[in-house]
């Protein structure tokens, strides 16, 4: 054991040295143009954009964060050689990272940088590590535990995080249930009233970003009625939290008399919400129908597939997307590299569906939503596609790569992580 | 003494296998068709058209050790009782709960299990309605 630790320290020491040797050499980094891969890393992009694979096979790459120096931190959902966070550095300035380290003994999804701190979550806890001025870690062996004791009951276990830059951290606690049925995912089982899951999950909790060992009693349920949020981001234009909800599954399996398979494949919408303190998105009582553009009473709570909810407590989405595509990351683009229309707009990484069977699965792409003053101004569009590597995805496992995390590099490049094959993509604008 | 017991065990095992191969009946098309019909209505959504399941959410059936195992009791039990254990399955964890399907009759359960044991890359012996009936009685 002791041998292992000293070996780790040695490895970390070495990577710090190699990095700092190049960190000051900005002319060398700037002089080399970064070229996209000949096949744009297999992606289909709008005209003028190119892509490259920054790294491959890093593990189950969930969310990613990038320092001002371009160091990439990748949160893995499952440990690789006992480590749950991968750090990637590009020392020769060609855009591809050749220096790889790892630390952190916990698997999870969330990772974010705020000020001089790197925050990362397991499925129960949130930790933070102090960053050095060159984007390395002061002490990768001993993070500060910020939040602990969060519910993890297997289902919707990811604890995604976002920070407001004003000392607060927002943590998603997903519902450990599909639709709060008395018997989870059981045909015809009705919903519990009120839904007890909402006391400790199915929402966003707000904690102090600096205090140690906080749990439910120290935090605040900031927003509720959110089944599972994996993608969330703080919008700096209007200082507001935005979240992407994974809509409920299995309307047909559970209520076949009300929903046929085709209806199941298209309902309910995946939804984006502009969150205020006290927001309630209505799960499990209602879902948002993308076709009717209404909040519909869930069949577990007396709905018949058409009955519109008139409950004023439940908020409408800021924008709705097709069903089941699993939005796993949200990023407001603040860079200057991309054309002006992208500035302050939202990128959404869709992990891809499973609950559309027997119809083909959908998603597996990065979408873009134009925004102005913190509000969507138009329809969403597909920005980057081709991750799945197949024209038609007949079964989820057919998809080769699945977008899961998004980050913006210091030069305004967009990075996308894939938790299937562990590929990290970088998308750049080369058009003039 | 130990060696003798080992030999005896081997003898029993051979006898057992022999007996099995003599009584195993070929799986008929109608059993597979009936099994497929149950699969399409009850299993397809989560386990997918190719039995591949959904990575990290719903366990695969294609190539799964529990599906093709000689011991069929575990498999029958999962259909009757559902599954929500937090355990590693063939080196992987899956998040979603499986509901019980005890409302299916013994023949339907036997047929759908025979179907999944003999679809995609799977090749294993049939499950009989009598085996389902016996386990259903035991679990009550």
SSE arrangement:
The complex is a heterodimer of chains A (432) and B (140).
Chain A (H helix, E strand, L loop, with lengths): L1 H22 L2 H6 L17 E7 L5 E6 L5 E9 L2 E7 L9 E5 L7 E4 L2 E5 L4 E5 L13 E4 L13 E3 L4 E6 L29 E6 L11 E5 L4 E7 L4 E6 L5 H4 L6 H6 L3 E6 L3 E2 L5 E4 L4 E4 L21 E3 L5 E6 L13 E5 L14 E5 L1 E2 L2 E2 L4 E4 L18 E6 L5 E5 L5 E6 L3
Parallel strand pairs in A: 13-17
Antiparallel strand pairs in A: 1-29, 2-3, 3-4, 4-5, 6-7, 7-8, 8-9, 10-11, 11-12, 12-13, 14-15, 15-16, 16-20, 18-19, 21-22, 22-23, 23-26, 24-25, 27-28, 28-29
Chain B lengths: L1 H22 L5 H14 L1 H4 L17 H4 L4 H9 L24 H12 L11 H11 L1
Strand content of chain A: 25-35%
- What is the CATH superfamily of chain A? TolB, C-terminal domain
**N to C succession of SSEs of chain B:** HHHHHHH
CATH topology of chain A: Neuraminidase
Shape of chain A: globular
Named at the architecture level, the CATH assignment of chain B is Orthogonal Bundle
Strand content of chain B: under 5%
Q: Domains counted in the coordinates of chain B: how many?
A: 1
Q: Could you tell me the number of beta strands of chain B?
A: 0
Oligomer: heterodimer
Low-confidence sequence ranges of chain A: 1-29
Task: Give the strand order of the largest sheet of chain A, numbering strands 1, 2, ... along the chain.
Answer: 10-11-12-13-17
Which terms would index this structure?
heterodimer, A: mainly beta, Neuraminidase, B: mainly alpha, Cytochrome Bc1 Complex, Chain D, domain 2, 7 helices, 54% helix, 0% strand
Would you give an account of this structure?
The complex is a heterodimer of chains A (432) and B (140). Chain A is mainly beta and 432 residues long. Chain A has a single domain (46-429), classed as TolB, C-terminal domain (Neuraminidase), CATH 2.120.10.30. Chain A is 9% helix and 34% strand. Chain A has helices at residues 2-23, 26-31, 251-254, 261-266; strands spanning 49-55, 61-66, 72-80, 83-89, 99-103, 111-114, 117-121, 126-130, 144-147, 161-163, 168-173, 203-208, 220-224, 229-235, 240-245, 270-275, 279-280, 286-289, 294-297, 319-321, 327-332, 346-350, 365-369, 371-372, 375-376, 381-384, 403-408, 414-418, 424-429. The radius of gyration of chain A is 21 Å and the shape is globular. Chain B has 140 residues and is mainly alpha-helical. Chain B has a single domain (30-139), classed as Cytochrome Bc1 Complex, Chain D, domain 2. Chain B has helices at 2-23, 29-42, 44-47, 65-68, 73-81, 106-117, 129-139. Chain B starts with a helix and ends with a helix. Mean pLDDT of chain B is 87; it is low at 1-22. Chain A binds chain B through residues 77, 154-157, 183-187, 250, 252-253, 264, 354-355, 357-358, 394-398, 420, and chain B through 40, 44-46, 48-50, 52-58, 60, 82, 84, 86, 93, 95-100.
